[in-house]
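In this section we walk through a basic example: taking a raw amino acid sequence and producing a predicted 3D structure, encoded as discrete structure tokens. The instruction is simple. Fold the sequence below.
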Amino acid sequence: MAISFTLSIAQISLITTTAILIFSTHSTATKTGIPSRPFKKVYAFGDSYTDTGNTHSSTGPSSFTYVSNPPYGTTFFHHPTNRYSDGRLVIDFVTQALSLPFLPPYRNPKLDKSYGVNFAVAGSTAIIHSFFVKNNLTLNITPQSLQTQLIWFNKFLESKGCKGSSASTTQECEAALNDALFWVGEIGANDYAYSFAGSVPSETIQKLAIYSVTSFLQALLNKGAKYILVQGLPPTGCLTLSMSLAPADDRDDMGCVGSVNKLTYLHNTILQTKLNDFRKKFPQAVIVYADYWNAYANVVKRNYGFKELFKVCCGSGGGTYNFDVFGTCGSPASSACANPSQYINWDGVHLTEAMYKVMAHSFLNGTFCHPPFSHLLSKKLQSG
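The resulting token sequence is shown next.
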């Protein structure tokens, strides 16, 4: 997710600490208890929360156009990788836990894609881009949407000899689809952000965004996808950008922007209902919902060792949030904190590697997937 706006618009126990420290080790495959390489490949979709390099500074969303500059990537990779964080994302921890390499971005033709592909694009929307152009919602300068990612995926399958919109029994399609995990990262937060203060009601955005996501999932299931994980939206009212722009009296019980969190929570509720419908329609598939909203909220409420819940690690301007939309992370005016692991927010919209690490652990080993991720794994192992 790479939300764009303009100016107008403790840790509760030793057990918790130990759990986080265990997951912090590099050898996540052993520590998570996941059998080595249960999936042969992973296909990922979404926005900047999942994008591992399809976007560069020259193509990124407005206000966050420095992803190719230091200090992005400084924590783990020690150089910018066009990930919107100081290090790894949730999808990176997922592939490590599954004993697979980091997913290569689709737009880089030189990288090995035999273990999967990442189609996610920073700034991407669920609703097709032309909708925002038609309604003069000029904050959306990213032309790619979830539909674009589906087109890319279809082209990738065709390059592997798998053609057609329906499930196929050809050897090429079986090789491309049967042993794959489909990771649908959060998508839709940008739709709401780009339409902020616009003429299109949030209810319309919600309806169209949900329709776009469900149509996308329907296409994957029709092709024969068997193992799908779908992330909900995080509580975007807890992001520094939202906190810095909203009036001080618009707060919920977490101290975040209540009106924004209410909108994303409702979005997730509707999405979960749609996923239940798909489970009935495609009983042969395992469809997991990753509850990003409550996993994130759990950290905000309990701290989990983070000292800064809302202030950015990398930004400018000082003050309560150290955030200036005209001097975002990577720009000449910005600087980064000495210890990103103490912060949840990296640049005002995106999260630190430390927070992504906790989120990944919450999904893979915690109680924030429905059904649990272990259920998906057991079904895969049973099928061979």
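Looking at the output, two observations stand out. The chain has 13 helices and eight strands. The longest strand covers residues 41-45. In the next section we compare this with other chains.
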